[in-house]
């Protein structure tokens, strides 16, 4: 199943530069509605206001990690079905931490190319 | 003379009505056809085009990478100052770890290979419940990452930067070896003191 590019995407990362890079990659792939959030709580505020087709989120964040945001989303029926993709610079550690979690999202390791991101988005949509 | 059928003569027409003084042409409805083409799933070529376009778009951002890395270095230095003045407990360690992870993530994404290597070494020291090396070692890592960023070294082949990263790894392994030795020594001391302590406790009874 491939990701529906007509739906808005929420990119969550406490580093502005990464949000900018992901937004640029997505825009060039035909995803025009891309919004950024600098933290988990900000992402939750945005999720309350709009219906997103995909959430791409950094793993290491404070006060809420990307995995914690996913758990919160899983607890809300209206958000549980939104495809979710985690980004991390340390994919091995993330894999270990997510090993026993139900509905663990796909993880994309930094650095990622446009192709990797596109494939991961399709994977997240199919999950 | 060869007769050409109306359909062959005007393939774009659905039908043609002939009237006394005029002709009505009905073109074939193509709208659905066009719409179907637009929503058809992207094929391999489309994907390759899109990926190439996306890579070019990111390349256009490359002039900003140095500025973003520089602000990440400033953030890391600020986090270190706060960490050094703190109790270095779990909360402070967590803040420091996040700052280091941010630098590592950006360095990897923006292909600052040596900085990513240094930041990974720093993250390793900040992974546990408590710092596993003296705080001065953390400072050495932070300063090294900031220096490489400020010097604008993004290539993995810069010998000076690589040497700096190597020296930090040596420093880390020396500190860890010393800590291990110390812990083993303390454990031996505890083991030899245990029977004496137990005898004292027995006498008190």
Automatic annotation (TrEMBL), chain A:
PROSITE patterns for the chain: RESPONSE_REGULATORY
Entries under Gene3D superfamilies matching the protein: 3.40.50.2300
Signal peptide annotation: none
Keyword Calcium tagged: no
Residues with the 4-aspartylphosphate modification: 58
Keywords: Phosphoprotein, Transcription, Transcription regulation
Cited InterPro entries: Bact_response_regulator, CheY-like_superfamily, Sig_transdc_resp-reg_receiver
Domain Response regulatory: 8-125
Presence of the UniProt keyword Phosphoprotein in the record: yes
Record-level GO BP terms: phosphorelay signal transduction system
Domain of life of the organism encoding this protein: Bacteria
Protein name: Response regulator
Lineage, broadest ranks: Bacteria, Pseudomonadati, Pseudomonadota, Alphaproteobacteria, Hyphomicrobiales
TrEMBL record, chain B:
Chain positions covered by the region annotation Disordered: 1-26, 185-205
Domain of life from the UniProt record: Bacteria
Compositional bias ranges of the Basic and acidic residues kind: 12-26
Protein name: Uncharacterized protein
Organism this protein belongs to: Alsobacter metallidurans
């Amino acid at each position: 199943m491939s990701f529906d590019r007509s739906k808005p995407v929420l990119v969550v990362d406490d580093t502005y530069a990464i949000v900018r890079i992901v937004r640029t990659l997505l825009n060039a792939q035909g995803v025009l509605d891309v919004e950024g959030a600098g933290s988990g709580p900000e992402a939750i505020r945005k999720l309350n206001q709009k219906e997103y087709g995909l959430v791409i989120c950094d793993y290491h964040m404070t006060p809420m990690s990307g995995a914690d945001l996913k758990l919160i989303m899983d607890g809300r029926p209206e958000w549980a079905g939104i495809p979710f993709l985690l980004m991390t610079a340390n994919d091995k550690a993330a894999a270990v931490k997510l090993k026993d979690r139900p509905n663990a999202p796909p993880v994309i390791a930094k650095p990622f190319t446009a192709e990797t991101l596109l494939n991961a988005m399709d994977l997240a949509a199919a999950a | 003379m060869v007769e050409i059928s109306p359909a062959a003569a005007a393939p774009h027409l659905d039908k043609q009505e002939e009237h006394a003084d005029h002709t009505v042409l009905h073109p074939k409805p193509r709208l659905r056809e066009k719409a179907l083409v637009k929503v058809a799933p992207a094929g391999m070529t489309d994907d390759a085009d899109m990926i190439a376009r996306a890579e070019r778009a990111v390349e256009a951002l490359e002039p900003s990478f140095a500025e973003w890395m520089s602000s990440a270095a400033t953030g890391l230095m600020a986090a270190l100052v706060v960490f050094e003045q703190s109790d270095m407990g779990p909360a402070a360690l967590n803040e420091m770890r996040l700052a280091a992870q941010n630098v590592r993530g950006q360095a990897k994404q923006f292909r600052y290979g040596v900085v990513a290597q240094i930041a990974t070494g720093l993250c390793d020291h900040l992974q546990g419940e408590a710092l596993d090396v003296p705080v001065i070692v953390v400072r050495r890592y932070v300063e090294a990452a900031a220096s490489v960023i400020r010097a604008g070294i993004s290539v993995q082949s810069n010998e000076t930067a690589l040497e700096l990263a190597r020296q930090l790894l040596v420093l880390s392994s020396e500190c860890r070896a010393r800590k291990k030795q110390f812990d083993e020594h303390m454990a031996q001391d505890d083991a030899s003191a245990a029977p004496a302590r137990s005898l004292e406790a027995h006498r008190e009874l």
